[in-house]
Amino acid sequence: MPIVSANGIEIAYDEFGGARAPAILLIMGLGTQMIAWPEPFCDRLAARGFRVVRFDNRDIGLSTKFESAGPVDVGAAFMQAMARRPVSSPYKLDDMAADAVGLMDVLGIQRAHVVGASMGGMIAQVVAGRYPDRTQSLVSIMSSSGNPDLPPAKPDAIGALLAPRPGADEREKIIAHGMNVYRIIGSPGFPTPEDELRAKIERSTDRSYYPVGVGRQLVAVLASGSRVDLLKTIQAPTLVLHGADDPLVPVEAGKDTAKHVPGARLQIVPGMGHDLAPGLVPILADAIAEHCLAADTSSRAAAM
Length: 304
What we know:
Layout: E1 3-6, E2 9-16, E3 23-27, H1 39-47, E4 51-55, H2 74-82, H3 93-107, E5 112-117, H4 119-130, E6 135-141, H5 155-162, H6 171-185, H7 194-207, H8 211-224, H9 228-231, E7 238-243, H10 251-260, E8 265-269, H11 281-303
Parallel strand pairs: 3-4, 3-5, 5-6, 6-7, 7-8
Antiparallel strand pairs: 1-2, 2-4
Helix pairs in contact: 1-11, 2-8, 3-4, 5-6, 6-7
């Protein structure tokens, strides 16, 4: 997988489809590498005529690690956020959005359909709001507006998210931890077979394991606050996809996101939790492809 310099950091990425096709930029979520975008999902989008780019966010996978920032106190940051006080962080979602746009610059992509999952959806929202001239359309998946009045995650889901991570030399414990997290937050209507889930966690663990970066990403989310006012300014055609059974980011968050983006369309998926299970690939990929194709058609019509 190639690594390029963009926005002052190194970003690992790969891509599917033709280099001259309309671009879809995939932005993954908290503590999750780009390979969490399943290859069948990327291939399905590419088969619909798109150039599909996925990449590792800063502090995860093979992209730049902000080691000089040191570890962060996630618990203290949560307490500050719950008290609606400012949270300090080494970087914010705006910086991660600038990374995404910087990658577009390097790859020669003027405009992209920006698609993000969970924290990646938050970053995608920032891209659409701050860089309207670079955004062909927006897809926000299992994400949130950051509205502090939204209902919280279920206790077992937040517990799994905040549970101490095993040490880097404890491979089996790392895998067991990852599998437990996915069992808790996964899609009840689209269960992933145990062998497939284990293979997914093993691949991720062997590629990169950097839990301190996950903490910094989480604090970046908390420090960035609400995006409600920004969402109201988004002009790009927007699709909000959310699982009806998401225990980590409740479906109310998807509804709130769609409510604040002018003209946004909300699609709630029954049985979907907080993952991209194999059974969800055709549902989500086809919904995204249809949205992006419609946005491209509208853009061409407006230019005539």
